[in-house]
Amino acid sequence: MFVWQTSRFEIDLSRPKVMGVVNVTPDSFSDGGEHFEIQSALTHCEQLLREGADILDIGGESSRPGALALSLKEELARVIPVVRHAVTLGVPVSVDTYKPSVMQAVLDLGADIINDIWALRWSDPQGLKSALDVVSDFDSCGLCLMHMHRDPQTMQTTPMQGDVVAQVTGFLAERLQALERKGISRQRICIDPGIGFGKTVEQNFALLAHQKMLLALDYPVVAGWSRKSSLGAVTGAPADDRMAASVAAAVLAVERGAHIVRVHDVKATVQGLKVLEAMQNAESKENKNQEKRQ
Known about the structure:
Blueprint: E1 3-5, E2 10-12, E3 17-23, H1 38-51, E4 55-59, H2 72-86, E5 93-96, H3 100-109, E6 113-116, H4 131-137, E7 142-146, H5 164-181, E8 189-192, H6 201-209, H7 212-215, E9 222-223, H8 229-235, H9 243-255, E10 260-263, H10 266-293
Parallel strand pairs: 3-4, 3-10, 4-5, 5-6, 6-7, 7-8, 9-10
Antiparallel strand pairs: 1-2
Helix pairs in contact: 1-2, 2-3, 3-4, 6-8, 9-10
């Protein structure tokens, strides 16, 4: 059983947790602009909690394929008001950023988790602290390390080649070693294979099919399949009509051992996971009864 240590919470991962997405962006691939206004984002945070989200994940910069980098000033202007409110809601608050200065600012406000698509490899151009330096200065903030091939501007123009499972696992193992050398406790860390970040459709599904390879690293796994283009490729559905496919992918990921699912459609995902849990409970009960009869 894993317990994820974050700034204010110890998150029990013996049961899967749902991380609700709050995109404070005009250009995210599936819901860009829907919650760009600050009040809309604040309302959305509260709505996700009513729907059953365990964690809020707030992001101010789109990482969709082809997205342009955002200035530090603009990202701070987007996320700071939302984080300031979210930390009052009584749940863990994650911030999706790779910029050290943003990390510092939101952690100072009381954010619990840094969710980094660059896996803490970024340094400010001005030569200030690196991302790894910032989070190592905080004794207990939670961390999510994601694999990304290349960068958002180019990752889908030249996707990965070769054995994606081995490459992703190897990359994450190297980043985990880098954090260990920094003295960062393993209880603070989750890993994310980065579905859609520089991978082909086939490679994304290979990561799901062979998720046990990631689990062998012995860290909690975050699965982010929600509304991804690979789901559209196999269903033909546009981004705003992929809820059913997203729930199916989340359930399959949890069935294969994922501990956290990052989703847009919280209510539907919570319902899907309850069905999975009921089936697993019935299976466990039957196995115990068989053992008694033997």
